Amino acid sequence: NFPGGWRERDPMAGSAEFVEADNAEAIITRIETKSRKIESLLKQFKHVEALKTALEGSPPKTRDERCKSANWIVVHRAIMAIKDIDGMLNALDVEYYDILMKYLYRGLSTGDRPTCDQCLKIHEKLTERAGLGCILRCLTDTINVV
Description:
By secondary structure, the protein is an all-alpha fold. The chain contains seven helices and no strands. α5 packs antiparallel against α6 (113-130) and α5 (97-108) crosses α7. It is globular and about 40 Å long.
């Protein structure tokens, strides 16, 4: 960590780097744009496409909690719209599994009953599909915190 902001390589995302806090407004703007796209997809009943869109570029490469919270709201909206979990997992590329697992744990940490119920249902199916390694990668990755 360096005073006044820092940059650290993310081993899970190649050369991607964290951005300094003064770029938080630009990140929030991108999240708002993504949110509008997701709402449009959900209105068209394209739930899996909405989830993929929500997970793309997640987590935001910043430690700014406003950005993480804004992105969580977008991902949460997409997660809660999923009805056919098996169908969603069949359509979701495997590279999304680890980040989805991170957001499931974020959802469980809210304590909100409907959110926890949905996250547990998806967690069970995702663990069957992706294995315990997905859980371990999620819990041990302290760089890409959602």
